[in-house]
UniProtKB/TrEMBL annotation, chain A:
InterPro entries: BPD_transp_1_N, MetI-like, MetI-like_sf. GO terms for cellular component: plasma membrane. Keywords: Cell membrane, Membrane, Transmembrane, Transmembrane helix, Transport. It is a multi-pass membrane protein. This is Peptide ABC transporter permease. The chain crosses the membrane at residues 9-27, 99-120, 132-155, 184-206, 242-267, 287-313. One of its GO terms (biological process) is transmembrane transport. Pfam families: BPD_transp_1, BPD_transp_1_N. Residues 95-306 form the ABC transmembrane type-1 domain. Belongs to the binding-protein-dependent transport system permease family.
UniProtKB/TrEMBL annotation, chain B:
Residues 8-258 form the ABC transporter domain. GO terms for biological process: peptide transport. This is Dipeptide/oligopeptide/nickel ABC transporter ATP-binding protein. It comes from Lysinibacillus alkalisoli. It comes from the Bacteria. InterPro entries: AAA+_ATPase (IPR003593), ABC_Ni/Peptide_Import (IPR050388), ABC_transporter-like_ATP-bd (IPR003439), ABC_transporter-like_CS (IPR017871), Oligopep_ABC_C (IPR013563), P-loop_NTPase (IPR027417).
Length: 320, 336
């Protein structure tokens, strides 16, 4: 198992290399550079040119790529032109915020999707099932930013139930109970918004799995043993249906990262998603490329995680 | 047909499936009796309703699209009218069921021990340790080498024959007086088939239980059965003790089935095959004898409209009277 995991990590290297090339070229293709924003009628054109030269923007593209990638390999993601700080330190504090938001979102997604998927599958074609399926289609059709804006407007500004931006009430002493509660309070509304929209695939998948598993021969065997129907469900149908859902876990990570871009921007939450949008606006290449590389890495990690989980929960699958 | 030896009495049992808005019987007015200490074989072509009959006996049909009528009397109670909860006290405890394909019939995520133990949890008062001991004893009984090891394995780690032995152990767990085996050897290799049949026969003698053995293989019937019921299109068309049936088959369908077994064929080189297939539920002629379309060369006047079972010799029943005028040999021994 450890060997396979190591091998999978090695395979990631060429994948990440190709990603780095694409990311770098795309970033270079974007119109303007970090200094474009500094130009005003009074700016000395020579000064700008000097700055460009200093930043290495006039070097041949191959050299620029080499300088960048050799830094990345050593953990140096470069310096942000906007923040005048190292990219790693900026991403570092944002990553923590996004991690908290994603964690709560993921928990809520599973808390909502698993019971609904199970109920829809067990009571197939009932009114309950039809309502759940309708909800799952609606949640799929509604764009994240639309619902985010509606919720922010209603529960943030109208009813004032939730804070409308930030990660914590700054007046609170870090480390106190109130401080942590405030942190939780700040991610609650964005997480709920996200979770409500992120359940579609799990509900649909689980529903199909339950219906499918119910017709399997091993369920007939279980029934022929004369055990109560509720036990047939819990011991045989649910366990077997939840299996593919466990594999979904890794991919949920990817979905959360994608969604965080909208959610964080709308809710003014300083995480990686918001950082991504801001750095595109300010043409902060080093941050953009670092973030895309990180998202790419996490996606690959997510799929590896799925495979590992699968091999743990399903005795038929062994990765060795 | 009643006596102290009677285990299970099936009376006028019909099981109909809903296709669109109508119900079509796949088992049509079947009456059979299973006695203590015997193996009753049910034979017939694919689609004649054998599995439907078997699953009706353990109440596994979905009431939303299936209608079961008639009686299945066990210990003075009619299983057909029981609720699912009441039926749970009978399934597993009094009737053990062995399915055809042990790979799909075993839960891939559960250890063998858990799967055998399950019915013990609900039908006995055995403590955990006692149940585990019983599981090992059962595995031993069905001829599995190294029971402690196999108990901790998953189905995919066992061979087909071993899985079917596990399946048998599951059926035997609560020592049920009745066992139903639906084509227990069809999914297995020929050599393994013989072993499993021997095991079933041995276990039957040991436990004195009554077994309903479903098969489409008359070789299997000849080897293990005491009595045989031949089914065609949802009906029993002939029923007799095994020796009587093989020596003195009456119904043209039974005769052609027997003629289609190589070793039974006197000529040896010529194999008589049955042409055509069992009509589907919807296309089945409901008036007139269901079998008549398959022997079109017989004079129409010879056929009966709705033949009922007649006793033609002690314990030998045939759903036909025209067999008296029907000269099978003259027709070349084959049915089209
Ligand atoms: N759930 C169902 N709904 C509708 N029709 C069914 C259903 N199950 C079985 N049938 C039909 O009922 C008839 C009898 O099927 P059954 O499975 O009992 O046959 P069988 O004798 O066991 O055949 P085999 O040897 O292939 O196992 C067939 O025509 C089949 O198509
Ligand atoms: S009535 Fe005719 S078709 Fe029907 S069983 Fe008798 S001989 Fe066969
Ligand atoms: Mg069958």
């Amino acid at each position: 198992m450890w060997k396979t995991i190591l091998r999978r990590f090695l395979v990631m290297i060429p994948q990440l290399f190709i990603l780095s090339l694409i990311v770098f070229i795309m970033a270079k293709q974007m119109p303007g550079d970090p200094f474009t924003g500094l130009i005003t009628p009074e700016t000395d054109a020579n000064r700008i040119a000097e700055l460009r030269e200093e930043a290495g923007l006039n070097d041949p593209i191959v050299v620029q790529y080499y300088n960048w990638i050799s830094g990345v390999v050593q953990g140096d993601l470069g310096k942000s032109y906007t923040y005048k700080r190292s990219v790693s330190s900026i991403i570092g504090e944002r990553a923590y915020n996004t991690f908290l938001l994603s964690l709560l979102s993921a928990i809520l997604v599973y808390l909502i999707a698993i019971p609904l998927g199970v109920l829809a599958g067990r009571y197939q074609n009932s009114f309950l099932d039809k309502s759940i399926v309708l909800y799952s289609f609606l949640s799929y059709a509604i764009p994240t930013f639309v619902l985010s804006l509606i919720f922010l407007f209603l529960f943030g500004y109208q009813f004032e139930w939730f804070p409308t931006s930030g990660t914590v009430d700054v007046s609170l002493e870090p480390g106190t109970m109130d401080y942590y509660w405030s942190k939780f309070y700040h991610i609650l509304l964005p997480s709920i918004t996200f979770a409500l929209l992120g359940t579609t695939s799990i509900i649909q998948y689980l529903r199909t799995e339950i219906i499918d598993a119910s017709g399997q021969d091993y369920v007939k065997t279980a029934r022929s043993k004369g055990i109560p129907m509720r036990k047939v469900y819990s011991r045989h149908i649910f366990r077997n249906s939840l299996l593919p859902i466990a594999a979904f876990f890794g991919f949920t990570i990817t979905g959360l990262l994608g969604g965080s871009i909208f959610i964080e921007t709308v809710f003014g939450y300083p995480g990686m998603g918001q950082l991504f949008v801001q750095s595109i606006q300010s043409r902060d290449y080093s941050v953009i490329t670092a973030l895309v590389m990180l998202f790419g890495f996490l996606t690959l990690l997510g799929s590896l995680l799925s495979d590992i989980i699968m091999s743990i929960v399903d005795p038929r699958i062994r990765i060795d | 047909m009643s006596g102290a030896n009677e285990l299970l009495e099936i009376k006028n049992l019909s099981t109909s499936f809903r296709i669109k808005d109508d119900f079509f019987p796949a088992v049509d007015d079947v009456s059979l009796t299973l006695k203590k200490n015997e193996i009753l074989a049910i034979v017939g072509e694919s689609g004649c309703g054998k599995s439907t009959l078997a699953t009706s006996i353990v109440g596994l049909h979905n009431p939303n699209n299936t209608k079961v009528t008639g009686e299945i009397n066990y210990k003075g109670k009619n299983l057909v009218t029981m609720t699912d909860e009441q039926f749970n006290n009978v399934r597993g405890a009094d009737i053990g069921f062995i399915f055809q394909d042990p790979l799909s019939a075993l839960n891939p995520l559960m250890k063998i021990e858990q799967q055998i133990e399950e019915s013990l949890i609900y039908h006995t008062k055995l403590a955990k340790a006692e149940r585990q001991a019983r599981v090992l004893q059962l595995l031993e009984q069905v001829g599995i080498p190294n029971p402690p090891r196999v108990a901790q394995q998953f189905p995919h780690q066992l061979s087909g024959g071993m899985r079917q032995r596990v399946m048998i152990a599951i059926a035997l767990a609560c020592k049920p007086p009745i066992i139903i085996a639906d084509e227990p050897t069809t999914a297995l290799d020929v050599t393994i088939q013989a072993q499993i049949l021997d095991l079933l026969k041995e276990l039957q003698a040991e436990t004195e239980s009554g077994i309903i053995l479903i098969t489409h293989d008359l070789g299997v019937v000849a080897e293990v059965a005491d009595r045989v019921a031949v089914m065609y299109a949802g009906q029993v068309i002939e029923e007799a003790p095994v020796v009587e049936l093989f020596r003195n088959p009456k119904h043209p369908y039974t005769r052609s089935l027997l003629n289609s077994i190589p070793q039974m064929n006197s000529e040896g080189d010529k194999l008589n095959v049955i042409h055509g297939i069992v009509p589907s539920l919807k296309n089945l002629p409901r008036t007139g004898c269901r079998f008549s379309p398959r022997i079109p060369w017989i004079d129409r006047a010879t056929h009966e409209d709705n033949p009922t079972l007649h006793e033609v010799a002690p314990d030998h029943f045939v759903r036909c009277t025209c067999w008296k005028t029907f000269h099978f040999e003259d027709e070349g021994g084959s049915v089209q």
